[in-house]
Amino acid sequence: MTAPAATPIAAGGPPSDPAATATHCPYCSLQCGMELRVGADGAAGAPAVAVEGADFPVNRGALCGKGQSAAELLDPAVRLTVPLIREPGADGGRLRPADWDEALDHAAQGLRRIAERYGPEAVGVFGGGGLTNEKAYLLGKFARVVLRTPMIDYNGRFCMSSAAAAQRKAFGLDRGLPFPLADIPRTGCLILAGGNPAETMPPFVRYLRELRENGGRLIVVDPRRTRTAELADLHLQPAPGTDLALALGLLHLLIAERLLDEGFIAERTTGFDGARAAAMAHWPERVESITGVPARRLLDAARMFGRAESGMVLTARGSEQHSKGTDTVGAWIDLCLASGKAGRPYSGFGCLTGQGNGQGGREHGQKSDQLPGYRSLTDPAARAQVAAVWGIDPAELPQPGVSAYRLLAGEGAGAEGVRGLLLAGSNPLVSAPNAGRVARRLRKLDFLVVSDVVASETALLADVVLPVAQWAEETGTMTNLEGRVILRQAAVTPPPGVRSDLAVLRGLAERLGREGAAKGFPEDPEEAFAELARASAGGPADYSGIGYRRIREEQGVFWPCPDPGHPGTPRLFLDRFATEDGRARFAAVDHRPAAEEPDAGYPLRLTTGRVLSQYQSGAQTRRVDALNAAAPGPFVELHPRLAAELGVAEGETVAVASRRGRVTVPARITDAIRPDTVFLPFHWPGVNELTNPALDPVSEMPEFKICAVRVERAAAVPNGGGAA
Ligand code: SF4
After folding, report:
1. What burial class does residue 415 get, using C-beta atoms within 10 Å of its C-beta: 0-12 exposed, 13-18 middle, 19+ buried?
2. 3-state SS, residue 396
3. What pTM did the predictor assign?
4. Does 31 sit in the ligand 1 pocket, CB within 6 Å?
5. 88-137: per-residue pLDDT in tens?
6. What is the DSSP annotation of 468-482?
7. Of 53, 38, 24, residue with least CA distance to 552
8. Is the CB of 63 inside a 6 Å radius of any atom of ligand 1?
9. How far apart are CA 600 and CA 640, in angstroms?
């Protein structure tokens, strides 16, 4: 698995100004390096913080608008600064300020009351892909050791769990990218399926530009002609929900065009016969009829990719967030394996992770089925090792609970589902699929505790709200999309009423755990990381050779890194894959329709996504003036032909309705989208009330990317108006 680096990893330097603090952006998985300089005259007594892009390997000085404006989140006016407790009363009562002891006592009493009455599994924990590794690790430990509940999962399940599941099946290991970003410009042909980094992580685009400057080819697969698609040599525009057929069609053409790497298939893979049989049933004309992509463009793509000396396929949410997302990613991986474009320099499959710590967040135990080090909760050896680190009997560790949507929707833990929930760093009222049902369910909970930086829509429903520190106010590690463990360093102290998530967990452990339980919940992040590293030893995501000093000195360390003398692993699989026999496994999958296809009542496909100036549920970015000015609210993209059929003009308010919900938003008319598809960005409340929670059977990722909708002029709809 470990092999010599093919090219040096680009190195950055220490902060150019010794008075600056080197840290990383609070948002996406690129985790751009930043330098923060602190002045004395900020808003409302807070220090003024100037943000500048650092010469860090991933961003080389660049930041997008979200990163550039991140210091606005430090303004006490936009964030929580005091704990809140709900006073009973009409309309659900109201939140009033409280001191920390009262808030933690109240939170502990509420959770304990439910556990005593209904059993420990009646209390759930919901985490987030933005939490640091230390927080994710201790949140998982808290659920299993203090609450003794199996009911823990996190919003990363919504983000890239299908890619994770497919990579584990194929390669025996899941890391977003098996190579550093610096390798991308050196590949011969890159297929980017279902991702729009020009809007989600703009500094990434330089790697695509450099790829093309070096003579490499770029193929973008997206139902919309996005800013990223405009950079491509070839843009394939399939209907949402048909990427699986597209990937199978490309494999069919690789076979037909004799562009297979037979030697690689024989020496380094297993299961090709099944994949070939599946691909042979997806001839170009059939794939054209399913996807809408002309057969001749499929052939262009297959030749471009198959004839290149090296190649990569990168998927993102567009290919992954489907009820067949794991199979779809499996088919993309098959394409790499069949053409020998995996496990070699400048070749391979990768996934563009979304959330800042989407990678680390899924490695250290906040997922319902996993223990730290990316180990399985059902593996007896893993249970024994982690239990030993935690000082408990392995038999005390709960078995896996239910996945994120099921947990939020009230499944598991008996007919009622969980009755109490501790939720950290997530805003499912906006980001969960079928969000209307999730909101109704959260309102019905007996007790909800939320720790967050801001008063998100979900926090405002809580019985107790705990205001916690954020990126520039605390130190902790994140693992970026490359598998590089990086260190966010505190530059300012948080406002007086704010504590760290680690202090919250310690405070709750003190109140809810066995005697001495709090000792297992250090407030010092470096101490927490040292324990995480020990707990991960020997696991797939082995961090045991990583420490804070080393991360600072080396500008991040790539896992696995099993001992302090190990160099880390920027490139995976060059010698062997991480399966038992060292061979990659073909997926051999068949196309199937989406869970909800268009019909007479709902004749259009809805696909959702992101815009440049907002991030995820918008809980943070909707509080930043410059970002709000650039992207003030949701809209729906309509093709001119569809707009003409509906009689809708540019800017006119229209209603978009699915079987689950309805929003009214202004129309944007653009020929960048297919006539049979409409697009809504999901950063605002209401949009996800439309989306379908149909789950992938392997990853349990919901089908955010396609559901059936109808669009009507709002004036023609009763109760029209009132944007979501
Ligand atoms: Fe932050 Fe991502 Fe923008 Fe970089 S690309 S500045 S990490 S939001």
Report:
1. exposed
2. helix
3. 0.94
4. yes
5. 888 889 999 999 999 999 999 999 999 999 999 999 999 999 999 999 99
6. B--GGGS-EEEE-TT
7. 24
8. yes
9. 21
